[in-house]
Amino acid sequence: MECREVSEHLAACADEPSGRALWAPAGPAARAVEAHLRSCASCQADLAAYRQLGTALTGLADHTVQPPAWLHDTLIDSVHARLGRPAARWAPVERFRLRPEGTRALTNPRYAAAGGAVLLAGLAAGAVLIRGRRRRSAAELRPATAA
Question: Which domain holds residue 132?
């Protein structure tokens, strides 16, 4: 087997420490690639480069890149420029409030129980209405029996 042919299989061999191709562990093509790798320094170097690349790519999976602080403003300005709008400067938001200051939250468990009871009553009423509708439609579909 020549270097040109072996180079097509090197990526498959790179994941396996023995150099054996994962796709054909006992096939004749795998044995030919193994034999060539034992005798060819150039293909051994290419295989080592594939393995280094795999290790580097695996390490990137755990690496998080933080964008620079100026990127956000630059990106917003460029979007506004493309849309033909003046660039707006955003003031940082201190804190987002869901309710006005000084009002009490609904923390009383009685409110939760009352809401659950109303929900349960609505579901029961809906079930009764659906069941009655099904019975009426089933009765309409039954043929009339002669008396």
Answer: 109-141
Residue 100 forms part of a structural domain: no
**pLDDT of 81-102, one tens digit each?**
888 776 555 555 555 555 555 5
pLDDT tens, position by position, 22-32: 444 557 777 88
**Phi first, then psi: what are they for 142, rounded to 5°?**
-70, 135
As for how many domains the chain has, the answer is 2
Instruction: Please provide the size of the chain in residues.
Output: 147
- CA–CA separation, 85 vs 41, rounded Å? 61
For residue 109, the number of C-alpha atoms closer than 13 Å in the C-beta half-sphere is: 0
Rg, C-alpha atoms of the chain = 36
19 within some domain: yes
C-alpha 50/C-alpha 36 separation (Å) is 17
Which whole-number Å values give the CA distances from 126 to 112, 113, 123, 138, in the listed order? 21, 20, 5, 18
Residue 102 lies in a domain: no
